[in-house]
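Researcher: Last one for today. Full complex below.
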Amino acid sequence: MLLVIVLIIGIICYPKLTKAFRVLTFTIPVTLLFDSLSKFAARLYKTNALVLHLECLALYILYAMVYYHLFRRKKIKKFIFTSTIAVVVFAGINAVFLQPLSRIFPSYLYIVTNTLLVIFSVLLFRQMLLYPTSISITSQGIFWFNTSMLFFSTTMFLNLALVNYWAKLYKNEMIYDFWYASYYILNILTGVALICNRREGRQKIMAQER
Amino acid sequence: MDRHINIKDDNINLAVIVTGLTFAFLVFSVVYFVVLYRNRQLKNKKEQDELHANYRQELLKTQLEVQEQTLNYISSEIHDNITQVLSFVKLTLGNIASGVEDEKKSKVIETRELVAQTITDLRDLSKSLSFEYISSQGLIRTIEKEVERVNKSGLIHVSLEQDGSSYPLGEQRELVLFRIFQESLNNTLKHAAAHHLKIMLRYHTDLFMLMLDDDGSGFFVEKLGNKTGSGLRNIENRATLIGGTATIDSSPGKGCSVKVVLDPLRQQLF
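Model: Here's the assembly. Have a good evening.
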C-alpha cells in the first residue's frame, strides 16, 4: 500500500523531476513488481530466491544510475559504472556457483550491493558538503534520498545478521518486522525526496521565468 | 531448559542493543551532517556576500575612475582649446573695436565683454571638473568657489557654514565628497525649484558631515529608491565607496536634505 502511494507521488511529480529522481521513480514499480512476484513464487514454489536474486540486481542497477546522475566528479561516475558491471558479473557467478539461483537467498549479493550503496551515500554526503547550495537541507530531495539509502543499506547488514542468526534460532516474527520497518523508512523517505525534488524543479523553472 | 531461555533472552537483548546503537549512530550521523551542512551554507553565504560587496566596490571604483578621466579630459579641452580660441576671438574683437565707427564699436565691445565673461565661466567650470584643481585647493576651498559661482549666476541663494576646524580627509575622499556635493547641487538647480540652499560642513574628531538642505518642492524618496542610475542612487553609492553613509530626506513641499556622514579615522582603500 505504501509503495502504491509513493508510486502515485512519483507519477504526479515525474514531469518536474530531475534525471536522477526520474530514475528513482522507476525503482518503485520495480520493487512493487518484484515484491508481488516474490510472494507469488513463495506460495507457488515454496522459494522466492530467484526473484530476490533478480530484484537485488535490478534495484542496485537503478540506484547506481540515480547516484551516477547525482555525482559531479567524473572519477566517481566511472567508479559507479565499473562497479555496476562488476556487480552484474558477480551476481552471475553467485547465482551459478555460490548461492544457486533457485534455492538460496542471495545474501552475498546483498552484502556487496549494500556495501557499495553505503560508499556512494557517504561520497554523496561529502559532495554535498563540498558544494552546499542556498536551499535549506530539509527541502532538498537529494538529502532525503541519500539519508534513506544510508539507513536502508546500513540496516540491511543488521537485517541479514538478524535473519541468518536469530531467526533460525527463535523463529521470531519481530525480526522480520524490523526488516519491513527498514523498507517502510526507505519508501517514506523516497516519497519525501520526490516531493522535495519536484519543489526544487518548480522553483528553478519559476526562477528561469523571472 | 531455564539456562537455554536465559541464553535466548541474552541474545535478544544483544540484538536490541545492537539495533538500537546502529539506529542511534545513524541518526547522530545524519544530524551531525545537517549541522555541518548548515555551517557550510552560512560560511558560503558570508563569502558570497563579501565577494559581492567587493565586486560592487570595484565596479563603483572603476566607474568613478572612468568618470574622473572623462571630466579631466573635458576640463583640459575647455582650458586648452575652447578658452584659447575664445581668448583669440576676444583679442581680435579688441583690435576690430579700435578701427570701426562708434555705433558698431559699442556692439563689438559688448560682444567682447560677453566673450570675456564666457571665458571666465568656462575657466571656473574647467576648474570644478579638474581632479588636480580640487586636490590642490582642498574640499572647502573648492566648495566655496562653486558656491560663489552659483551665487553669481543668481539662480539660487547658497549659504555655506562650517562647524569645527577643517582637517584633510584624503585626496580621493575629498574628490568623491565634492562630486556628491556637485550631484546634489545639480539636482537642486535642475529639479527642486528652490530659492535657498544651505550647505553645512561639520568637522568633528570622529565624525565628518556634509549636508545640503534646500527649500524646494521636494519629492517622495521611496518612489525614486529603486531607480538604478539615478542621481540619488549615485550619491549613496559614492558615499559607500568612501566608507560613509548618505541619507536623503525629502517629502513634497518640504524641500530636500542630503546628508553624508563618515568616520574620518576609519581607513578606507579608496
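The two ends of chain A are 40 Å apart (CA to CA). Chain A touches chain B at residues 125, 128-129, 132-134, 137-138, 147, 150-151, 154-155, 158, 162, 166, 169-170, 172, 175, 178 (CB under 8 Å).
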